[in-house]
Amino acid sequence: xxxxxxxxxxxxxxxxxxxxxxxxxxxxxxxxxxxxxxxxxxxxxxxxxxxxxxxxxxxxxxxxxxxxxxxxxxxxxxxxxxxxxxxxxxxxxxxxxxxxxxxxxxxxxxxxxxxxxxxxxxxxxxxxxxxxxxxxxxxxxxxxxxxxxxxxxxxxxxxxxxxxxxxxxxxxxxxxxxxxxxxxxxxxxxxxxxxxxxxxxxxxxxxxxxxxxxxxxxxxxxxxxxxxxxxxxxxxxxxxxxxxxxxxxxxxxxxxxxxxxxxxxxxxxxxxxxxxxxxxxxxxxxxxxxxxxxxxxxxxxxxxxxxxxxxx
Length: 312
Ligand code: HEM
Fold this sequence. Notes:
This protein is α+β, with helices and mostly antiparallel strands. About 30% of the residues lie in helices and about 25% in strands. The protein has 9 helices and 10 strands. Strands 1, 2, 3, 4, 5, 6, 7, 8, 9 and 10 form a 10-stranded antiparallel beta sheet that branches. Protoporphyrin IX containing FE (HEM) binds next to helix 1, strand 2, strand 3, strand 4 and helix 3. InterPro entries: Catalase, Catalase_core, Catalase_sf, Catalase_SrpA-type_pred. Pfam families: Catalase. It is an enzyme of class 1 (oxidoreductase).
């Protein structure tokens, strides 16, 4: 690490620490969520969707979708049941009629460990400084002791799903949804399997094969489509919309946006995922970013990772 590391943009420092934590660089792979699998299908909007947003894919027509499921960390060979492979990720790209697209990029935890990119970097650097031989209390013990949101994220149960298709995913960052009448409401995405979530027992996850999730999805889709409901959890009047560490109460209203149906694995998925940068800020009219600093920092970090994987 050179002396000027701390002068670099915080997003680039995060990518560098993610790379270091995964023993990288792993050429051609993402700096985070490196291991993944790509499927294809369609999204059919629900009647209730247009009441929330005028976005093109939320009106009446179905949209083709490409979905990438992933394990956390920059390690492309991480075992699918490894504790560090959580949260799982889902990145959804909706193809729109005018050849443009919009993305949803979500994780399997309802909440994030940091409210700012600086705090997220602090967490990652504390982990990196807490390897074997670190003096007690270690930097990560100290960080968690002074950052309750990071501690509760670390302590959140993260059971191993039976399938990427039996996991529930959360948008975590809020967006502003505006309908045709010009009414705006803040909300957070939820992507939930229509047949319910399903997790391995502790014993099953201990014995799970390293690639059990990426091996399971093709088998599952060869038998039947996998369906998810996409909805938005609406913020109540005083809910914090710009802080992804603040989980909203479960009694908040959910608006159903529609049904995501995955039909097959993308035969060109390996080339596609390398050449594609999903971004939570690939938006369309009717959906806008909140002022959440984590949300606003994400595309910058993703672009650094994408540039190293593909462009350079
Ligand atoms: C400041 C906060 C964050 C940073 C710096 C960050 C960093 C990264 C980076 C560098 C990548 C690789 C992107 C690429 O190479 O294409 C990535 C991927 C990803 N991130 Fe984040 N992330 C952050 C927050 C989040 C949050 C809040 C979520 C979900 C709510 C999330 C979900 C994902 C997912 C699902 C992927 C994989 C996307 C794909 O399949 O292409 N990240 N992240």
